[in-house]
# Entry
Amino acid sequence: MRSGQVVLDVEGLRMSYGTNEVLRDVNLQVRQGEVLCLLGPNGAGKTTALEILEGFRTRSAGRVEVLGADPAHGDERWRARVGVVLQSWRDHGNWRVRELLAQLGAYYTCYSTEEIERPWDIGELIAAVGLTAQAEHRVRTLSGGQRRRLDVAVGIVGRPELLFLDEPTAGLDPVARREFHDLVDQLAGEQHTTILLTTHDLHEAQKLADRIVILTGGRIVADGTARELAQRIAGEDEVRWSQGGERFVKSTPESTRFVHELFQRHGEAIADLEVRRASLEDTYLSLVRTTAAEPAEAAR
Ligand SMILES: Nc1ncnc2c1ncn2[C@@H]1O[C@H](COP(=O)(O)OP(=O)(O)OP(=O)(O)O)[C@@H](O)[C@H]1O
# Structure
């Protein structure tokens, strides 16, 4: 998945709000078609980083290139190629769902290309985000989760090449969450949309992301697939079993192979087998605790 061209390139990004230095030295490259999850504790600077990449916030220092342009100077054509789902916005209460999406979608028509017809067909889009039953409802009458689905629809109505999603599944019920995951898979798989999203749900990150980036202490402290991160920091898998009335525990980086060999050697004598794989959660907690324990100067 890392073979596509670089669509997002960040080097030495810094951001301060007054004396509060939030981003200290962020370096990141994202390739076309990647789904990248940005993780980090509350206040780590994820939204700030996203807002800079989206061109909504001016950075203090560093080089940022998004779809070949500096987002601080992105023109309308550039903006039409970028989709944004913010944490929350509460406008357009009087509009009906279909009417609002058609109105917003019309803006993108002139930005169609030979490869990408803009906007998304509104009926198809409404179905894709699961709002068909509410298509003629006024926005202010939607529930929180339905509103979040609409936020996602607004973000993708122009068929963006690059999509930023800030906590897209916050407040969604399990069914809506699953549908959203399918939609992300569809956007990345069929439309090759590059997706950068933030979440606090590690299972979601594990499920959706080709690559996970952990931001804490103003820097990226880990970058890799869920499995790579789990193993690199949390360590090895743990295999437990009993044999002849005795309990055994073995730590191994290759639990599948180990279990295979165990059964080859001892067959039916093996009982109570359990495999605990190194988890992303272990890694995440360990990294975030380490950074939180460091004095700010040490992290610089
Ligand atoms: N407009 C602003 N003015 C001043 N400080 C701000 C502003 N926006 C964010 N901050 C501060 O910057 C830091 C990072 O905030 P940000 O919202 O980027 O974090 P986050 O990682 O998205 O957090 P969360 O997971 O809680 O959404 C916090 O200390 C916050 O108080």
User: Anything to note?
Assistant: Residues 174-191 form the longest helix (18 residues).
